[in-house]
Amino acid sequence: MEIVEENAGSYLSAGEMPLPALYCTMAMLFFLSGCFWVFLLKQSRHPVFKIHYLMAALVFIKSISLAFHGINYHFIEIKGVHLATWAVLFYVAHLLKGALLFITLILIGTGWTFIKHVLAPRDKRLFMAIIPLQVLANMAEIILEESEEGAREYRAWQDVFILVDLLCCGFILFPVVWSIRHLEEASRTDGKAAVNLKKLKLFRHFYVMIVCYIYFTRIIVYLLRLTVPFQYGWLHEMFREMATYVFFVLTGYKFRPAAHNPYFTLPSDDEEDEDEV
């Protein structure tokens, strides 16, 4: 017996048919945004740090990952099976994107290159914990993609993915909390309360952004996938990618190179004396 499941010239289900166009469109949007970010860095007359170029690399890796994902779905649409080459390229880009995203968030949260130039031992221990967990979460997600929902291991890997993903999301909130506490102490002791309070406010905004991003992409999107009719199953992916894009744009806007960005290094006493003169 041979059974062929096909929808009006497409092997994708009704809820997945818009996905190739969606992923390719978002890939182009991320790529253009990355080019614009690099242009701003090259034209900037203000200090540009290594973290700014790391943010650009993250945007381009995200764009490549979405492009490979869209191409993979395109071949599933026209052939009924995905080609191994594009699937492997997508999985490699997906692993790099996941690891680089959490590395960038932790580096921003700890204030690396902005308010300090060396990672503390506590920050290094956080990296040693979060990166293997994130790689494991991405591997679990890849195994889920390749498994049938009726398989016994599907449910086990799904539980592993949810648990590890929530642990990773919880870990990236710690450096922001540590930075907030550090700036609260500094604002009371070093006499530069005004600048430190501006930094503290920016850190709190970043903390709220991360919480909203995690809450929306992990909980709201999951509930949306469970509640919408089957033909609108692509909506949860659209909202996930749009939320990610908005989060990237807001993060870039808040931590862009600027003359009076309160996130930058505090001026030294010599610089203050020169300003007074």
UniProtKB/TrEMBL annotation:
It comes from the Eukaryota. It is found in: Membrane. Residues 18-262 form the GOST seven transmembrane domain. The keyword Metal-binding does not apply. Pfam families: GOST_TM. The chain crosses the membrane at residues 20-41, 53-76, 88-114, 156-178, 206-224. It is a multi-pass membrane protein. GO terms for cellular component: Golgi apparatus; membrane. The keyword Membrane applies. InterPro entries: GOST_TM (IPR053937), GPR107/GPR108-like (IPR009637). Keywords: Membrane, Signal, Transmembrane, Transmembrane helix. PANTHER family: LUNG SEVEN TRANSMEMBRANE RECEPTOR, RE59932P. This is GOST seven transmembrane domain-containing protein.
